[in-house]
Amino acid sequence: MDQATLVGLEIDKGRRIVSTLDHSGIDPKVALWLITPEYEDGRLVLASTKLDQTHPLRAYEEVAEALKGSFVYILPPMLILRMKDPFIKALRDRFGKTSDVEGMRLGGQSMGNRFITDAYVYRIR
């Protein structure tokens, strides 16, 4: 099987999704494309205090509702994690005070409970 890699089209799509979520009030604190051995393809990882207040399935429904009608293409696979998830906590502990992480690439390392094959960061705060 070919190893997945992040390309510009995915990165631009993710940037538009994060911007739309900001305008809807979801305000992701962590947003990044992640390629990990867990999944065959990449996932847009999101974590938000607003989404923590709902049942996990409801969090996906809220994101889908916020994005409804904004995109002509199929939305990418997403992984919505709680702010207390070990992966999110590790990212925030390490990069949360960094002034500008947008565009940062991560890979070949473990954070929390996940190994990062490749990642493109939109934000970690």
Number of domains: 1
The percent range for strand residues is 15-25%
What's the rounded overall pLDDT mean? 91
General form: globular
Strand order in space, largest sheet: 3-2-1-7-4
| Order of SSEs | HEEHHEHEEEE
Describe the structure.
- It is a single chain.
- The protein is of the alpha+beta class.
- It has one domain (8-124): BolA-like (GMP Synthetase, Chain A, domain 3), CATH 3.30.300.90.
- Helix content is 34%, strand content 23%.
- The chain contains 4 helices and 7 strands; from the N terminus they run H-E-E-H-H-E-H-E-E-E-E.
- It has helices at 8-24, 49-52, 56-67, 86-95, and strands at 30-35, 43-47, 78-80, 105-106, 109-111, 114-116, 118-124.
- The longest helix is centred in the N-terminal third of the chain and has 17 residues, at 8-24.
- The radius of gyration is 14 Å and the shape is globular.
Task: Give a topology summary.
Blueprint: H1 8-24, E1 30-35, E2 43-47, H2 49-52, H3 56-67, E3 78-80, H4 86-95, E4 105-106, E5 109-111, E6 114-116, E7 118-124
Parallel strand pairs: 2-3
Antiparallel strand pairs: 1-2, 1-7, 4-7, 5-6
